[in-house]
# Entry
Amino acid sequence: VKLKPNRDTLFVRSYNGSYNGDDFLNALTLDINDNVYLTGRFSTSNTEANATTFKINKQGQTVWQSSHAVAMGINEGLFITTNTTGNVYVAGNFTDGASHDAFVFKY
# Structure
């Protein structure tokens, strides 16, 4: 949801992964142009999920979406930030049920 300064709704967006399971958005940030970046995970089965990141412009349109599976199992974007040159950094973790590890993506 993006609100106007008077708190009227400017736009509402919802997302549902391809599996139609539990999907989570864990973090968001804005860039200097008021684009919104979101990261989290979208379920791909009962036991697997891909780390997913979105860029949404200030009009509420999805500019791009990126999904990654570093390993079989749960892959999840947990933190996101941008810099003034337009780079987007996502950090998160993944587990295959036996071990837990971390990742960093740069877009």
In short: The mean pLDDT is 90. DSSP finds no helices and nine strands in the chain.
